[in-house]
Amino acid sequence: MTKILVIAEHLDGKLNPSTARAVSAAAAVKPEAIDVLVLADNADAIAAEAAKIEGVTRVLTANRTENAHALAAVLAPQVAKAAAGYSHVFAPSTTFGKDLGPRVAALLGVPQVSDVMTVEGSHTFKRPVYAGNAIVTVEADPALPVVATIRTASWPAAAIGANSAPVEALGLDVALPSHTRFVELKQGKSDRPDLQSASKVVSGGRGVGSKENFEIIYKFADRIGAAVGASRAAVDAGYVPNEMQVGQTGKIIAPELYMAIGISGAIQHLTGIKDAGTIVAINKDAEAPIFEVADIGLVGDLFKIIPELESAL
Amino acid sequence: MKILVGYKRVVDYNVRIQVKPDGTGVVTEGVKLSANPFDDIALEEALRLREKGVAEEVVIVGIGPADLTAHLRNGLAMGANRAIHVTTAEAIQPLTAARTFLKLVEKEQPGLVILGKQAIDDDANQTGQMLAALWDRPQATFASKVEIAEGKATVTREVDAGLETIEAELPAVITTDLRLNEPRFIKLPDIMKAKSKPIEVIEFASLGVEAGGHLKTTHYAAPPKRSKGVMVNDAAELVATLKQKGLL
Ligand SMILES: Cc1cc2nc3c(=O)[nH]c(=O)nc-3n(C[C@H](O)[C@H](O)[C@H](O)COP(=O)(O)OP(=O)(O)OC[C@H]3O[C@@H](n4cnc5c(N)ncnc54)[C@H](O)[C@@H]3O)c2cc1C
Ligand SMILES: Nc1ncnc2c1ncn2[C@@H]1O[C@H](COP(=O)(O)O)[C@@H](O)[C@H]1O
């Protein structure tokens, strides 16, 4: 029987939108049941949100003080235990899921399918390798549970609102390690749309030149209601914090509109934006590789063009 | 303390990958191979810990075919004390790599294992987490800062929300992110010196690594191409085009 356990991602008492995307991928397997597992110190509000996701059969909660922070070493033994009776365990391919999924898989003694892009069958999936320059079809052993992370940019979020799945508390009797401890989380606070789920993203690269200059990217993004991203070079140079990095080793995103400003278009950056609806490139170098993938290109100096864009809006 | 470092050889990150027309793989003939960038960062971090006096010995590990020797010599030239070469003709998957590392951990008893967060060929991002699970030890993935003191590692991790700091009792597994450090360049005299450093060759089959749990890769395809775009002449035309598409 095909039954899928989806691990909910949450922070500060709120469900992360990546969870509903993982539910979409689970639905594509056409299982008999999709249960969402919420591991938290106070799971109720998060579970209530998860119960509204279309396609969810049940929401299971594991309430423990040890679950106050998402430490993989603490969560994995609980997930491995909760996985009994399920044919698949899915988690979003965010830093949360990437940290946790392989630890769960190893405890279950099975491989993991990372970054599922499409579901071809209950045990057959497509996933990217070589920074997205090749797509492989992989088959998992049907005799074993499948552990997979879901490439969120490849899946729409399942609708939220129409469902009211029952919520059940799980008594997971597992000893948890104390060898790993949470110290702190420094979050970039921003009122701008969330980079991973925004429909519009404006990104700046090394061409922006400085932290101070990045203000013009923020200002323009705010004018059009976009989230702000960056290339690795911009993060490395200290213009912006790390959580804004887009690309192979940053965030993989799929906004309807992506504007790359002062970004050359290295393969590793393009990996992060392949699924964007429309890519706009603004670069003073007409030969920049970003123009090979851009739907709309404009050659010129960003410091001249951005003010002109603002007045043309 | 001894530090074990994962040192995988992969297709160089600058190579434009070509998928073979018959879908059996990617073209690797005549393609430049290099150390996985995250593994150079792992090695650099281990060397810095040795230079600080936190560790005494840095051992690099490569699991792969017989011709891995030159690659391991590069890691030795960078500064590793010695290398372990687990020989296997077949490409191994993360679960098998983790099981192999576990065997070496049992043998070597390191205080720390540093691996890359992902190998840029399979992009799996699994081996470190799997090793930590099998070893029943802490994991600190995606590290951008590492401090070792009083038997524990304090690690800052690059997570989606920002920067998370955790404490992990040693022994532990750390996986590296790009901003952890900038690897040093290899100097010519070091290449000469590396020639006399030991490489221990271990036959994969002799380790008794648990078999099973493989994914079968049945097909390789090139990613869908984006269609050729248009160039606009000025800001006004760009705004007009975006408005027309309903994007602004
Ligand atoms: C293993 C690995 C992983 C990586 N992961 C990532 C990743 O996740 N994300 C990522 O982005 N990179 C990643 N990189 C780095 C990547 O290879 C590039 O170095 C990086 O993307 C370059 O950033 P950039 O385009 O901002 O800078 P550059 O390549 O320096 O480009 C700057 C561009 O700005 C233009 N410019 C300059 N001034 C102006 C102006 N006034 N007006 C208009 N245009 C201007 C220039 O013409 C140039 O094209 C990774 C690299 C490695 C090895
Ligand atoms: N064959 C191998 N030889 C040496 N190290 C490896 C090997 N496979 C994986 N690793 C280590 O595990 C990390 C993560 O790999 P992966 O899980 O495949 O993305 C790599 O950066 C290496 O440090």
UniProtKB/TrEMBL annotation, chain A:
Region feature Disordered, mapped onto this chain: 187-206
Keywords: Electron transport, FAD, Flavoprotein, Transport
Residue stretches spanning the membrane: none
Domain Electron transfer flavoprotein alpha/beta-subunit N-terminal: 4-186
SMART domains assigned to the protein according to its UniProt record, in alphabetical order: ETF (SM00893)
Top-level lineage group: Bacteria
Similarity-based family: Belongs to the ETF alpha-subunit/FixB family.
Protein name: FAD-binding protein
Organism encoding this protein: Frateuria flava
From TrEMBL, chain B:
UniProt keyword terms in alphabetical order: Electron transport, Transport
Pfam families: ETF
InterPro entries named in the record: ETF_a/b_N (IPR014730), ETF_b (IPR012255), ETF_beta_N (IPR033948), Rossmann-like_a/b/a_fold (IPR014729)
Residues annotated as signal peptide: none
Domain of life: Bacteria
Residues annotated as domain Electron transfer flavoprotein alpha/beta-subunit N-terminal: 23-211
PANTHER family per UniProt: ELECTRON TRANSFER FLAVOPROTEIN BETA-SUBUNIT (PTHR21294), ELECTRON TRANSFER FLAVOPROTEIN SUBUNIT BETA (PTHR21294:SF8)
Family recorded in the similarity comment: Belongs to the ETF beta-subunit/FixA family.
Name of this protein: Electron transfer flavoprotein subunit beta
Source species of the chain: Frateuria flava
Lineage of producing organism: Bacteria, Pseudomonadati, Pseudomonadota, Gammaproteobacteria, Lysobacterales
